[in-house]
Amino acid sequence: MMRERFTTIASRLLDEDPRTAVVLADISTDAFKDAALAHPDRVVNVGIREQLLVGVTGGLALAGLRPIAHTFASFLVERGFEQIKLDLNHQGVGAVLVSIGASYDRAGAGRTHQAPGDVALLDTLPGWTVHVPGHPDEAELLLRSGVAEDGLVYLRLSEQTNARAQPVRPGGFLTVREGRTGPVLLAVGPLLDTVLEATEGLDATVLYAATIRPFDAAGLRAATADRPAPEVVLVEPYLAGTSAGFAAEALADRPHRLLSLGVRREELRRYGTMADHIRAHGLDAASVRQRVAAFAAAGAR
Amino acid sequence: MTTTWDSRLPLDLVARMTGDEKHSPAALSTLDALWVLYDRVLRVSPETATAQDRDRFLLSKGHGPMAYYAVLAAKGFLTPEQLDGFGGWDSPLGHHPDRTLVPGAEIGSGSLGHGLGLAVGTALGLRAQGLDDPAVWVLVGDAELDEGSNHEAVAYAGAVGLDRLHVLVVDNQSATHGWHGGIAAHFDVAGWSTATVDGRDHDALYAAFTQPHPGRPHAVVAVTEPKH
How would you list the strands of the sheet with A205-209, edge to edge? Predict the structure, then answer.
């Protein structure tokens, strides 16, 4: 589980690096109990106060620390969004924000605990590195690299995972499967296994992104270079189309077609399981395969 | 620098921005309190502006920063000439301050209700590095306290006894619905040390600023004439 890996590694980073601090708002505090005993001044739980969570994070950074702020994505990114804009970006300081819950992890909790718009919101601000790991090993690597740098880093953890970790490096897209003439799919984080299953037996290229910002435009251009008019499919585990503008910009000088799959904008107003929600958003392997086929057929007409 | 209030230097400096030589001190509710802080309390100067153990002053109420810029100029963080272009394309001095542009400014502000949270984090961050001596001051307005983010910070800082944190509330009675029971009461119930003084009386301000407050954060409410 990514959340457990995060709390374990963040606790270790508190031991290893005196610049690190963890800021909490009553979520995951049990998992940081030992770390709080060992480092009472660097594990801060502000209570159920998410504006203060981000404000304190900005203040810790102003004082020279490398803060890691953590709670559910909806409360971390959406509730105090102006704090992110002003207490981090505008102050010119860095921080690592680590969210859980993602888009549909808590299907039974309903809309209040779902944040499919988090990456799109952060896209309104400059300078953010956005990691969307698909496996706990990737989450660990990206957390460590995020804490080691000084900038603005968002690490989006999910309960949905791929069976195996990919040899990711912070930044560029990985080519996981290479086709010759078919569509080029970009699978983001926990949707890689879905995309691999959906394209089984097709002449498709599958790229993988555990880091979606900055957007690896050069990687997408290279993967589509052989095709005169590439068909590009984005498969993102958050709001559909979040990266569409970035892909369009990367391919602005060549004819191409773009399909953006992701979480639908409309509220589901249904509970159930994560799998139910994945199906409802058309992000299960069968739905992805069908939608890619329809996209290809539309282009062939 | 040993500028005294009698020299009227801050007022003259304010006039460089407002262009009004007769500008009433009544319109500058923060000027006296800022002056006493920078002149007699804060241990920070242009030479120590980046020292880790400096005192921090965070202007949360970024509206109407002319008094702040004037005091920064009087204390040598800015040159008097820099005040002349206030708000212009070529000036680092905006109608709301930007810390990356203004020498000596600890935070950028303008949107109300951000300074206290940043000040709490700054105080925690200094303590986490073993810097128990530097004081962190944040100036908020009485109307600014309407923003709920302040109350998250006030309740938390009081609960954990963050005693290097100091809040200066300049109360010119501009909050639309007022503060029932007075502003200090709202800090008091949250566990803070408080003092309420005449915001134009320099000696009273100094006494309130330097009042001991072991184990508790400290709030000074500086009452000025009502905003017109």
Answer: A174-177, A205-209, A184-188, A231-239, A257-263
What one-letter code names the amino acid at A69?
A
CB atoms A60 and B125 under 8 Å: yes
Residue B228 located in a structural domain: no
Q: CB–CB of A56 and B149 under 8 A?
A: no
Whichever domain contains B27, its CATH number is 3.40.50.970
| Domain residue limits at B200 | 5-223
Interchain pair B114, A92: CB under 8 A: no
Q: A128 pairs with which residues across the strands?
A: A152
Which domains can be identified in chain A, with CATH numbers?
Answer: 2-156 (3.40.50.970), 174-300 (3.40.50.920)
The sign of the dihedral angle between the CA atoms of A120, A88, A141, A109 is: negative
Compute CA A100 distance to the chain's CA centroid, rounded to the nearest angstrom.
Answer: 10
Question: Would the CB atoms of A60 and B124 count as touching at under 8 Å?
Answer: yes
Q: Which residue of B has its CA nearest to A18?
A: B129
What phi and psi, each to the nearest 5 degrees, are found at residue A297? -65, -40
Task: Please report whether residue B168 resides in a domain.
Answer: yes
CB contact under 8 A, A55 and B120: yes
Would you say residue B101 lies in a domain? yes
Q: Which of A46, A85, A89, A93 to mutate to test the interface with B (most CBs of B within 10 A)?
A: A46
Would you write out chain A's pLDDT as a tens digit for each of its 301 residues?
A: 999 999 999 999 999 999 999 999 999 999 999 999 999 999 999 999 999 999 999 999 999 999 999 999 999 999 999 999 999 999 999 999 999 999 999 999 999 999 999 999 999 999 999 999 999 999 999 999 999 999 999 999 999 999 999 999 888 999 999 999 999 999 999 999 999 999 999 999 999 999 999 999 999 999 999 999 999 999 999 999 999 999 999 999 999 999 999 999 999 999 999 999 999 999 999 999 999 999 999 988 7
CA atoms within 13 A on the CB side of B136: 30
CA distance B103 to chain A (A): 14
ipTM of the shown complex: 0.96
Please state, in angstroms and rounded to a whole number, the distance separating the CA atoms of residues B112 and B56: 19
Q: Do A63 and B121 touch (CB under 8 A)?
A: yes
Mutate to test the interface with A, among B98, B118, B129, B137 (most CBs of A within 10 A): B118
Into how many domains does chain B fold?
Answer: 1
